[in-house]
Specification:
The protein is of the alpha+beta class. It is 28% helix and 23% strand. It has one domain (3-257): Jelly Rolls (Sandwich). It has helices at 3-16, 18-28, 43-52, 80-88, 92-102, 238-257; strands at 34-37, 60-63, 67-72, 107-109, 117-121, 126-131, 142-150, 163-165, 175-177, 184-188, 195-197, 207-216, 230-231. Strands 1, 2, 3, 4, 5, 6, 7, 8, 9, 10, 11, 12 and 13 form a 13-stranded antiparallel β-sheet that branches.
């Protein structure tokens, strides 16, 4: 199945849910704009994508106080169907829909998959509250949207791996978005769009996600400024919170001296 064929289905679902998506995004836009769409892919394809996911040993493990997950962006090393699905979400028709729905006229997909691509999380793995890096890999455009497509069949909401958005900040309870099979979650990324992934508790099943970031020539809100990916502790992790705040400040100092960091981020698709 080609990316164009996959994109045809995505576009059909987006158009069918256009009114609901627009209303949901605009209702939440003043804090963290987001919406979800069910059955974004043909069910058989979504299941094929799950079974095509690389094994953890074939992915990069990112493990620290900030996060614990497996990622992959070098798509030519994996099942070609995965690459076709990722780039189907970058189809011009999809980009046009997102631009109109979210009110972002100059919206661009990311062929480099900078921090995007595939992610897999198993039992006990997590992603602490964080702000995404504010820019693309060359610091030319602002990161403005995050698309997450979940492909683990029958994933129970009681087993973690769910997206949390914190529109009231980390001092208030988050909104939890279930990482339901074949669901697409779209959220804005800006200076206050704190989000996280709840720890996985399923003993065997991996939670698999296909992600894309979208960029713009302009910041999404007037308060945006350049920042590295910045992590915080969860409300019940005060000591970790202090450590992670210090970590973010240190990495910001480094980026003021070295535009791309001391070591360039390897999480890109090098074609």
């Amino acid at each position: 199945m080609t990316r164009e064929t996959i994109a045809n289905h995505i576009v059909s679902r987006l158009r069918a849910e256009a009114r609901n998506a627009t209303e949901a995004y605009r209702a939440s836009q003043s804090k963290i704009g987001y919406f979800v769409i069910e059955d974004i892919l043909p069910v058989t394809l979504a299941r094929e994508l799950f079974h095509a996911f690389p094994k953890p040993a074939e992915m990069v493990l990112k493990k620290s106080l900030r996060e614990d997950k497996y990622v992959a962006a070098q798509m030519n090393k994996h099942n070609p169907l995965l690459e076709e699905a990722i780039y189907a979400f970058q189809d011009p028709r999809v980009v046009s829909f997102l631009a109109e729905t979210c009110g972002i006229p100059d919206l661009y997909p990311d062929p480099n998959l900078y921090a995007g691509g595939l992610s897999l999380m198993r039992n006990t793995q997590f992603l602490n509250p964080h702000l995404d890096n504010s820019h693309d890999k060359d610091r030319n455009r602002w990161r403005v949207l995050n698309l997450l497509c979940y492909v683990t069949p029958d994933w129970p909401d009681s087993c973690g791996g769910n997206l949390e958005v914190w529109p009231e900040g980390l001092g208030k309870a988050p909104i939890v978005i279930h990482s339901k099979f074949n669901r697409l979650a779209v959220m804005a990324t800006h200076q206050l769009s704190w989000h996280s992934v709840t720890p996985i508790t399923h003993p065997t099943l991996p939670r698999c996600c296909i992600s894309n970031y979208y960029f713009s020539g302009s910041a999404l809100t007037p308060r945006d400024s350049f920042h590295v990916t910045s992590f915080r502790g969860r409300p019940e992790q005060p000591f970790r919170d202090l450590v992670l705040q210090g970590d973010a400040k240190l990495r910001m100092l480094i980026r003021k001296v070295f535009k791309k960091g001391i070591v360039e981020n390897p999480h890109v698709y090098k074609k």
